[in-house]
Amino acid sequence: MSLIETEGIVLKCHDLAEADRVVVVLTPDHGIVRAVAKGVKRLKSRYGSSLGPFNHVRLTYFQKEERELVSLQECELLRSNFQVAAEPQMLQLYSYLADLLLALVPPNDPNALVFRMTKACMASGKLNECEIGLIKTYFEIWLLRLSGYLIEWRKCYKCEREFYPDERPYVEAGLRFVCSACPKRTLAEFAPDGWYKVFHNVEKLPPTDVLAISDELNAAKEVSQLLVPVIERALDRSITTLRSVAVDGLIR
Ligand SMILES: [Zn+2]
Question: Ligand 1 centroid vs 192 CA: distance in angstroms?
Answer without folding.
Answer: 18
